[in-house]
Design goal:
With 676 residues, the protein is α+β, with helices and mostly antiparallel strands. It folds into four domains: 3-40 and 127-242, Distorted Sandwich (Calcium-transporting ATPase, cytoplasmic transduction domain A), CATH 2.70.150.10; 53-121 and 246-328, Calcium-transporting ATPase, transmembrane domain, CATH 1.20.1110.10; 346-356 and 606-674, HAD superfamily/HAD-like (Rossmann fold, 3-Layer(aba) Sandwich); 361-602, Calcium-transporting ATPase, cytoplasmic domain N, CATH 3.40.1110.10. It is a multi-pass membrane protein.
């Protein structure tokens, strides 16, 4: 294998295909597949052998104190069996109780480790079952486990990538992939076939690679598999978790030290008791009988001195802690690991999905206020998840029925719904809302459902609807109002997408995209009234500057929102005037637009995080955020949760992966001491 295969992101598509020995139009042949399968095996994460049951049981008895208890119980049991006693059951009671305690202690530990191993194996659920593959010039559907490096696969919206692969060709205007499962990025990432020239790139830099388990949220592409099974990024994550080594925890170390000390003290005392009574051996039937008699007394003394309940109490407390963490979806492989949390001095936390909800959510919106020239109204939107319910506030005052009070806001909701390929669904089993599609578009879908409708009867019905219907109520309404004729997909050069819709025989172009880009293409601004819902006035330089200032304010500083502009072009003309094949013409169609509104969104922090961070500070625990997301987004979220002050300079406190790679050992040590 050459450099083109070892580092496919830095080579051209032709070099990668040549290195893998595959023709882009024919795919692999039967012989090539068999040869590669023999070399690389099946495309699945190898099931970790796990620890055998007998070894798991044995490990529960390796604690020093438990070993002393076990030895005392065995000796007591042997003596009880050989001793001639009127009440044999009473003699057996003590050793049997000790053994039962030790068995219960071992059972809890074994069950916990088995449950943790099952949770780790759940990573395999991210692998798809089938894939559309080109082999011997024909496209066939195969099981994903049968893929090999060199297979050419087609992926599309909603599909999970079956293995790590190099993008060969994009079959749409754009390819967006949600790779948060691998990198923690909250936004879908745009991919292209272009080689990258970044030296020592991290995963986020590999814009021409797609990774196993990630999901395509927009577009369609042809890819060539470069790594399968355990060689994929997902396989490496699985291996790192599976190979985690158990470390001696502070509590276990103290218990072992206590056990060693106790065993020595007990041994000395037992020997002294036995030796002191050597002169009394004859009293009990001779030297042999006396020796056995006082040996039993010494053993009884040893058993009495050992705290039999201590291992059981420790195990029970740790098990309760493990159960509490399991409710919060935390994997604990070994019971003593729970105790280690009590000795924690530094917590390194992921951002996406841990400190944040991993759900993009519209936080602010701005529209013109009922035709008042220059009156741009900003509204705050409640909610940080996919629940399509949330209140709107304007200048800290609650806005009742926002769609009725601000007609431009209703039009913004309409564009958010129709210029959108995502869906919101309600999972009855989990009783939660789930997304289908790219995170940004889902955020707009949820926003539109929150805005509601100006039609009071329809809006009342929406408010009373079941969760299952509430997920798509406004969407169904707008889809019924307009007929979607065509879509002009998002492209990186024009940074926008649009749909051509028809209503009452007239075509309208609805547009959404990067705020600055869409604003530059607008000539009018929507200022609707109840009497004239389509009223628009020229977009003056003053108003344009006001909107630009709002974009700058939202996208920087503490807010750090991703800003999108919503616009439209009424009477867009007959569909025959549009060329939907040549994407270079799309920007010209999306010109002379009417500005409708502005939305700002982000992956918001979880509401409980700030208090948790305060608790950590009070306990003397230092918190460090580690994320694959953009450094500006990371510092913004860190300010929101209180890790950084609102105006604190983050120089020397926040670092990128590339900055760390360029540091020497001493610089890294200093960075570790100061980073947050």
């Amino acid at each position: 294998m050459g450099a083109a295969v070892e580092s496919p992101w830095g080579a051209s598509v032709e070099d990668v295909l040549a290195g893998l020995g595959v023709d882009r139009d024919m795919g692999l042949d039967k012989e090539g597949v068999e040869r590669l399968q023999a070399r690389y095996g099946r495309n699945e994460i190898e099931q970790s052998r796990g620890t055998p049951l007998w070894r798991l049981i044995l490990e529960q008895f390796q604690d020093q104190l438990v070993m002393i208890l076990l030895a005392a119980a065995v000796v007591s049991l042997v003596l009880a069996l050989v001793e001639e006693s009127e009440d044999q059951l009473a003699a057996l009671f003590e050793p049997l109780v000790i053994l039962l305690i030790l068995m219960a202690n071992a059972t809890v530990g074994v069950l916990q480790e088995q449950n943790a191993e099952k949770a780790i194996e759940a990573l395999k659920e991210y692998a798809p079952e089938t894939a559309s593959v080109l082999r011997e010039g024909k496209t066939v559907v195969l099981k994903a486990v049968d893929l090999v490096p060199g297979d050419i696969v087609e992926i599309g919206v909603g599909m999970r990538v079956p293995a790590d692969a190099r993008v060969v060709e994009i079959l749409a205007t754009v390819l967006l992939v949600d790779q948060s499962i691998v990198t923690g990025e909250s936004r879908a990432v745009s991919k292209s076939p272009t080689p990258i020239g970044v030296p020592r790139p991290v995963i986020q830099d590999k814009s021409n690679m797609v990774f196993s388990g990630t999901t395509v949220v927009r577009g369609k592409a042809r890819i060539v598999i470069t790594a399968t099974g355990g060689n994929t990024e997902m396989g490496k994550i699985h291996a790192n978790i599976s190979e985690e080594q158990e470390a001696m925890t502070p509590l276990r170390r103290k218990l072992d030290e206590f056990g060693q000390f106790l065993s020595k003290v007990i041994l000395v005392i037992c020997i002294l008791v036995w030796l002191v009574n050597v002169g009394n051996f004859k009293i009990h039937g001779g030297w042999a009988s006396g020796a056995i008699y006082y040996f039993k007394i010494a053993v009884a003394l040893a058993v009495a001195a050992i705290p039999e309940g201590l291992p059981a109490v420790v195990t029970t407390c740790l098990a309760l802690g493990t159960k509490s963490m399991a409710k919060k979806n935390a994997i604990v492989r070994h019971l003593p690991s729970v105790e280690t949390l009590g000795c924690t001095t530094v917590i390194c936390s992921d951002k996406t999905g841990t400190l944040t909800t991993n759900v993009m959510s519209v936080q602010r919106c701005a529209v013109m206020d009922n035709g008042k020239k220059g009156a741009l109204v900003e509204l705050e939107v409640e909610g940080g998840d996919m629940t399509p319910v949330g209140e709107f506030h304007c200048e800290s005052k609650l806005v009742e029925r926002p769609a009725s009070q601000f007609p431009a806001l209703e039009m913004a909701a309409c564009i958010s719904t129709l210029c959108n390929d995502s869906h919101l669904i309600y999972n009855n089993e989990r009783r939660t809302y789930e997304k289908v599609g790219e995170g940004t578009e889902v955020a707009l879908t949820v926003f539109a459902e929150k805005v509601g409708l100006s039609d009071q009867k329809a809006d009342d019905l929406r408010r009373r609807s079941r969760p299952l219907d509430g997920a798509t109520f406004c969407r169904s309404y707008w889809v019924g109002q307009f007929n979607k004729r065509a879509t002009m997909e998002f492209s990186r050069d024009r940074k926008s997408m649009s749909v051509l819709v028809e209503k009452e025989g007239k075509n309208h172009l609805l547009v959404k995209g990067a705020a600055e880009v869409v604003l530059a293409r607008c000539a009018l601004i929507l200022t609707p009234t109840k009497d004239d819902p389509h009223k628009a006035i020229p977009l003056t330089n003053e108003t344009r500057a006001e909107i630009s200032g709002k974009i700058e304010q939202w996208s920087g500083g503490l807010l750090s929102l991703r800003c999108l502009a919503l616009a439209m072009r009424e009477a867009a003309g007959d569909i025959s005037h549009f060329d939907f094949v040549d994407s270079s013409k799309f920007a010209s169609y999306e010109s002379n637009l009417t500005f409708v509104g502005l939305v700002g969104m982000l992956d918001p922090p979880r509401p409980e995080v700030r208090k948790a961070l305060d608790d950590c500070k009070a306990a003397g625990i230092r918190v460090v955020v580690i994320t694959g997301d953009n450094i500006n987004t990371a510092t913004s979220i860190s300010r929101k949760i209180g890790l950084f002050g609102d105006d604190e300079d983050t120089q020397g406190l926040a670092f990128t992966g590339q900055e760390l790679d360029q540091m020497n050992l001493q610089q890294r040590r200093e960075c570790i001491r100061t980073a947050r």
